[in-house]
Amino acid sequence: MSQMGKLKKHRLVLGLVSLVMAGSLTACDDGRAGAEGAAKQLASSLAALDVGQIAVEGKDAAAANEQLKAVFEGLDAKPAVESGDVKLDGDTATFPLNYSWNIGSAKWEYSSEATLKKSGDKWAVQWTPALLAPELSEGETLSVKTVPAQRGQILGAGDAPIVEDRPVFRVGIDKTKVPAEQADASARAMAALLGLDAEEYAKQVAASGPQAFVEGLVLRAYTPEITEAKIEAIPGGSSILDSMALAPTRTFARALLGSVGQASAEQIENSNGALRAGDTTGTGGLQQKYDSLLRGKDGVEVLATPEVKSEGETPGTKVFFSSLPSPGTTLKTTLDLKLQQLAEETLAKVGPASAIVALKPSTGAVLAAASGPGSNGYNTALLGQYAPGSTFKIVDSLAMFRNGATPDSKVECPSTLTVDGRTFKNAEGYPESSLGSVALRDAFAHSCNTAFINARDAVSQDQLESAAQALGVAVEAPKLGADAFLGSVPGAAEGTEHAASMIGQGKVLFSPLSAAVMAASVANGAPVSPQLVLNADAAQGSGATQNPSAGATPTESGSAPPSSASASALPASPASTKPITKEEAASLADMMRAVVTSGHAGFLAEVPGTPVGAKTGTAEFGNDNPPKTHAWIVATHGDLAVAVFVEEGGLGATVSGPLLKTFLTAAAG
Questions:
Q1: SUPFAM superfamilies attached here (predicted)?
Q2: Of the candidates 138, 118, 136, which has an alpha carbon nearest to the alpha carbon of residue 126?
């Protein structure tokens, strides 16, 4: 082809391309791209709750932005918003806005219709309230009302209800019944009546809306100090009959079970959206650990409320969305209501922190776990960490049996013993008739410290650790279902520290629960693994907290015990540990019985029913002179194992012993 021909062909191709491009521009120049861009920009602006940067018609842009924020402020969330297919009709474009909200545990989805109009080269949204939600009228705002789910019960042994809905009176100020200028004075008067902080309660009343009932206190029943007449004598004062998940009494197993009330700001912040202001949730104990299981899922209502235009007007509301609540699941426990109440009554007048734990050796069921009033709400029974004193001689004795000793073996019990410059002695009042060369049974019955410290060369620290684990102490408790400290027995110690371990001091730590487990393993003739929550597995998929070491407190030395002491971090059954045998348990039971028949717990011989076996313990702590002491006693009584603890007492026999006798005698009756 000639050069001229090639040039003509090239010009023809360029002409065709130009023609095609011109046709495309003409076809696409209908404004669709601009309209679709404006639609997407509107959707993203609504999702961000900020339309201040988009073109608006029908309302000032700033006013539209204020209305947007006001309408959605009560939802306390941001929506996901997407624009749908755009339909063009000249200079008008319409399209759906698809909203999706996470409101509590519910998802609210809806579509509204949006209109854009082109003015020059810009598309402007035609602003109406219905753009934000269908049927929303001018002046209306949205808010959320929680529809509480029925909270799951907590049951005790035999499915006896422990925590269930019980009648209560919610006392506070009803702002619809008091003039606005009187509300502050009424709030302060109500605070004085209920014993609340007047400034704080007055702020709550002032910050609440004109239709609000501002709760001050929940009562199980009126009292001589807080009567219905005194409440109603305050302008706006009101008491509303309601129900709440409560235990039989205000103090019943409070440290163990926890309580139920309105979610705190901290709980709401840490809930990842599961809790909102005004929601009810568990605080402490099983109520908090299994809150998502017990709470169920609240329903919600999204309400549209019109603007109040005149004082005293009560505006009506429209329901835009509602979801039904799902009731919570019942939590089943092994607690025996009679024994738990008995344990609490036994400790009622004990001043220092104290605890009684009762187990059923044949099953490991926790029948009672009471923390006395001196514990100030802390779960001493399960979480306390204390030197166990001479109750640990049960562990010593098992280790000695495994080295060939028997209850009849002779041991040396001097009045004092010095190890690496530190002098150890027996408890004050130790009988001289049991000094010198005595049977192990006698040394155990009278709790000869020096005899057991004398055995330190024959019983290594790792043998103590192994013997403790053989008795179910300082090992995992997979069936417990509650936060607990299960004991800590170091596997290595030398000199005075090892000597101190032989009498349950040094770095050896027990909780009242682990002391009861130790006694229960003797009664059972095999290691006992405690169980409190029977359906704990139901919580695995519910988001329930599973942190058994939570709430642990520092020891007397001011430092927390090893993390291996927590319920989930301990060995399940160390390969090197041989479980206690029935023969070994029988020998220990023989010596525990001697504590009652010939030792210093003779008062337990009066307990009716099967013979009682026991071991007392006194553990020194602190820097006082003379030092303060923890008072312990553990016992077996048929298919019952009990540990009694008083944090700051005298001797285990004289302080905790009478409490044990009271408990066992009443339990036997």
A1: beta-lactamase/transpeptidase-like, NTF2-like, Penicillin binding protein dimerisation domain
A2: 118
Closest CA to 548 of 286, 255, 269: 286
The yes-or-no verdict on residue 5 having pLDDT over 90 is no
Q: pTM value?
A: 0.76
Q: Which residues pair with 22 in a beta bridge?
A: none
What six digits make up the tokens of 655?
Answer: 């302080």
Asked whether the bond before 478 is cis by omega within 30 degrees of 0, the reply is no
Domain boundaries, the chain: 32-131, 154-332, 337-537+548-668
Token digits of residue 470: 């053989």
The pLDDT assigned to 108 comes to 96
CB 398 within 8 A of CB 471: yes
How far apart are the C-alpha atoms of 272 and 270, rounded to whole Å? Answer: 6
Amino acid 652: pLDDT: 82
- 423 is written with which tokens? 């002098």
Residue 566's Cβ-count burial label (10 Å; 0-12, 13-18, 19+) is buried
Cα→Cα distances 602→434, 593, 629, 642, 653, Å: 16, 10, 22, 17, 10
Instruction: In whole angstroms, give the CA distance from residue 270 to residue 622.
Output: 38
CA 352 to chain centre: 25
Quote the percentage of the chain above a pLDDT of 70.
89
Q: Quick one: which of 77, 126, 67, 119 has its CA closest to 99? A: 77
**CB-CB contact of 152 with 539 (8 Å):** no
Write the single-letter amino acid at 150.
Answer: Q
- The predicted-structure confidence for 315-344, as pLDDT tens digits, reads as follows 678 999 999 999 999 999 999 999 999 999
Q: 623 falls in which pLDDT band (50, 70, 90)?
A: confident
Whether the predicted pLDDT of 9 surpasses 70: no
3-state SS assignment for residue 269: helix
Kindly report, residue by residue over 182-200, the tens digit of the pLDDT.
999 999 999 999 999 999 9
CATH 3.40.720.10 fits 32-131, yes or no: no
**Lowest mean pLDDT segment, chosen from 298-312, 338-352, 364-378, 560-574:** 560-574
Q: Are 460 and 466 in contact (CB under 8 A)?
A: no
Q: How many residues does the chain have?
A: 669
CATH number for the domain running over 337-537+548-668: 3.40.710.10
Instruction: Report how far residue 610's alpha carbon sits from residue 635's, in angstroms, rounded to the nearest whole number.
Output: 12
Mean pLDDT on 125-152: 92
CB-count exposure of residue 94 (10 Å: 0-12, 13-18, 19+): middle
Determine phi and psi for 46, rounding to 5 degrees: -65, -40
**What region, left, alpha or beta, does residue 302 occupy, with left being phi > 0 and alpha being psi -120 to 50 degrees?**
beta
The CATH code belonging to domain 154-332 is 3.90.1310
CA torsion 586→588→589→592, rounded to 10°?
160
Distance CA 24, CA 7 (A): 26
